[in-house]
Amino acid sequence: MTIPNTIKETHEKIKSGELSIRALVDSFLKNIEEKNSSINAYIEVYSDIDEQVKNAEKMFEEGRETIMTGIPISLKDNMLFLGHKASSGSKILENYTATYNATVVDLLKNAGAIFLGRTNMDEFAMGSSTETSFYGITKNPLNEEMVPGGSSGGAVASLSMGGTLLSLGSDTGGSIRQPAAFCGLVGMKPTYGTVSRYGLMAMASSLDQIGPITKNVADAETLFNFINKYDKNDATSIPENLRTENKKEVKKIGVPKSWVTGEGIEDSVKENFDKSIETLKSLGYEIVDIDLPLSPYALAVYYILMPAEASSNLSRYDSIRFGMSLPSNNLKNQYEKTRESGFGKEVKRRILLGTYILSHGYYEAYYGKALSLQKAIQKEYKNIFETVDVIATPTSPFLAFSIGAKTNDPIAMKLSDLFTVPANIAGIPAISIPSGDANNNLKHSIQFMGPMFGENLLFEVAKKFEENVQ
Question: Among 43, 204, 33, which Cα is nearest to 137's?
């Protein structure tokens, strides 16, 4: 069976009777059965898929269908789906069952989408390669000797291996865009506050955003439009009347040349980016050399703010309130035994770092300064978007790397977020799309960043670029 390439095409074939929802879902389940034992994209395939299929079929029969009805989707393991397990890739939550739906799950469930299963991820989203998961590493379907990126590596791999039509991931510092780049897919981080975080297990609450992972830009736009809703259950959700729509046409694309040609960036990445800029010029865009002097410091800001927030968010997993519990003769020992056994090395590393940053005597020296620099970076992007419409950079300074190559070098691992982190620090939207073939069956990618609520600008540029590189 030939699986349609887009949501729209799939919907039209289901509606015309040319394709049944059952056959569509079964084709993906077959691919999962054949490939997941090697790739390890899915932690679990849900047991109620048959029920979901019947509900979607009923929606078509009664004329209540949406364009998402019957569309298969995979879910990152840190989003809650009522009655199903969600562990955030951690042993400490191995047996946790969700007691409510995440808002994004509710929105898509009500639209008739079919959730196939939960996907592997770096433990509590802490990683850039999906090698820190309690459930083992995930491999890159394009080349199984390589990592798929992280922390949404399982979500991306589930789509890349043909195990779903769409996937949902979360992006705190590039965790959707970087793995999408490594696996040759489209990944998008929306403007902070446009997609509800209610029902998303928090790592860094001021940075986390749920976003789409798709095969093409059109599907990313469709999925984003379904989950782009105000939610009163999320205190950081921005009311729709406060969202300023960008109606202008994209004419100028800013390129921070001094930043994207710096040290640590692979030559092949630089060469492909130069070719991509030439493609954009041929499409009629004016390329403007811009200066973003603070952006290279966004990574340092991120690795102060993120562990600080993570150490606070993960304090709830204390053997009493949530997760596993290893009894002991006193409460202190119980805490220590449970958290020592339940958390992996990378999570412990970031908890220790975050606790240190927030401790007396260091709070102002580190956390306070990072917050000040974050505000300066936000202002820098706001100002630059008064002169250009979108900004183009590589998605990652290097291509997908070999499994195990960077696990003993945390600094080298963190550099993969060099170009993606600024969008999270500034709260702006960004999208990563494939930009050409690379060696070892891998793909190059390009990232576009836009002003707040400028998702439509990103879709406009990305679609035109996509048409000229496929």
Answer: 43
Residue 28 to residue 36: CA distance in whole angstroms? 11
Q: What is the pLDDT of residue 470?
A: 62
Q: Is 175 an active-site residue?
A: yes
Tokens at residue 17, please?
Answer: 């009777």
Residue 433 pLDDT > 70 = yes
Residue linked to tokens 């805490």:
335
Q: What is the pLDDT of residue 187?
A: 98
Task: Given the residues 74, 152, 175, 319, select the one marked as catalytic.
Answer: 175
Main-chain phi, psi angles of 171, to 5 degrees:
-130, 115
Length of the chain: 470
Beta bridge partners of 119: 42, 76
Distance CA 257, CA 266 (A): 15
Catalytic residue among 74, 87, 128, 151: 151
Token representation of residue 109: 């469930």
Sheet holding 390-394, edge to edge: 42-45, 114-119, 72-76, 166-171, 209-214, 186-189, 430-437, 443-449, 390-394, 252-255, 286-289
pLDDT surpasses 80 at 1:
no
Please list the residues that pair with 443 across neighbouring strands. Answer: 437
Residues 76, 139, 414, 443: which is the catalytic one?
76
CATH of 7-242, one of 3.40.190.80, 3.90.1300.10, 3.90.550.10, 3.40.50.300: 3.90.1300.10
For residues 139 and 322, the model is more confident at 139
Q: Which residues pair with 295 in a beta bridge?
A: none
Sign of the four-CA dihedral 215, 463, 295, 422: negative
Known active-site residue 151: yes
463, 188 contact by CB (below 8 A):
no
> Sorting pLDDT into bands at 50, 70 and 90, what band is 264?
confident
Residue 203 has pLDDT above 80, yes or no: yes
**167 a catalytic residue:** no
Helix, coil or strand: residue 92: helix
Q: Is 433 helix (H, G, I), strand (E, B) or coil?
A: strand
What are the helix (H) ranges across 314-368? 331-342, 345-357
Residue 358 has pLDDT above 90, yes or no: yes
Residue 108 reports pLDDT greater than 70: yes
